[in-house]
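User: Hi! I'm a student and our assignment asks us to look at how structure tokens line up with a sequence. Could you show me two examples?

Assistant: Happy to help. In each example below, the sequence comes first and the structure tokens follow. Example one:
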Amino acid sequence: MKILSTAPLGPQWPTLDPFLFTAHHKDYFPSGNDDMSISVPLNGRNIGSDFSGKDGWSMYHGRKIPGFPYHPHRGFETITIVDEGMADHSDSLGSAGRFGDGDVQWMTAGKGVQHSEMFPLLNTNKDNPLELFQIWLNLPKKSKMVDPHYKMLWNEEIPIINEKDNDGNTVEIKVVAGQYKSVAPLSPTPDSWAADLNNNVAVWRIKLSPNALYNLAPTEKGTNRVLYFYNGDSVQVEDKLVHENTCFQVDETESISIKAGNSETYVLLLQGKPIGEPVAQHGPFVMNTREELQQAFDDYQQTQFGGWPWDKQEMVHDKDKGRFALHADGTLEEK
């Protein structure tokens, strides 16, 4: 049996070890004000915790600007893929950045970091659509208390492979993580579970043109492998045809056929060998035991993981700023 299980997709997607969960944000934000805030009334929303999707968008934990004001993490990693729109990052190490339109941010929280992820509405005379994936990748016990690390994978540098099926239809594979045939990905953060190739971690976005057929090659036994169909009118995985957002856990040792319907179709692949350790999680902290969780809360109360060096909780950067990454050591990347 090639398909082991299926499940419907909501805003938060189910995952398997070594992943913890994936959030998919698809928002059709209206035009912004000059300060990059929402330009329309916020009546009828639970401001501070708005996940309503009202009118096609949510404020999340933002009050004037949508997004996630400063909050802590410990014991895992975030991989943030922004396919459309922009995200502004700021953290307790003094790092900052603006990234989007295909860029990926990889952040190892390790022993603790505070950060904010805000969605600046840069367009004042048209809508501000946003599509963002945040993937939580666990860390093994040996790495849960490493120093935090923040890295940008710029869209222009991420490998993209184009293939054709027997009928000339195109398949595009964006290799965020994990070797694809002979193509190596950009390096993840150094303490990541993905940094060891033996762990067989892969994050690939597969885009199929209408009616394209793609055969996913088998991989090493013992790897958890899940396909997420999130955009398109339909997809057929092996003999199962679905018309709505669905995930498929598939047998990693088998070749898997993926056929698009009559529209462009998008599938995200997440795979990796399981860490296989106990998971104790409460909100933004992911450890191995309840005692370690309590220690995480105690440490945060005492140190604030370095405090908050920025003047706003909803930290956004200058409106005319382009894509950039400022690292804690002062290194600046600009795109």
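Example two works the same way, sequence first and then tokens:
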Amino acid sequence: MVIVWLGVTLVVVAMGYIRLAPSDPVIWHRMPDVPQVKDFANGVIRVVETGPNGLEDLNAIIATTPHTELMFGSVEGGMVTYVTRSVVFGFPDYTTARQTGDTLEIYGRSRFGKSDLGVNRARVEGWIDALQAR
């Protein structure tokens, strides 16, 4: 019985850490030096020609995304980082978007684990589809 309670305690502590761990802007509010379209095991980078208002339009789309909130930056500043949490466990995924002229760069990645099972790619591509439909 002690082993069961120890296991439950470990799960609760891990869940608390996942939900409450601080998000350092030095780590998460950044873009790769040379963003280029890329898929990797726990994230994605997309570069899209949107015109000068791409970040503002994307921000409006992201504002309607469930479980997603603004973490760092601002549209006016030209770069914004959002966190989207999974429903059940609250795993955080970070998405940074930056406007450079008429180009919108989007970098989505998970914080924990080696694979996001394509979640960030699906989310970012969904946002891009909604952006291009405007």
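Here is something you could point out in your write-up. The longest strand covers residues 92-100.
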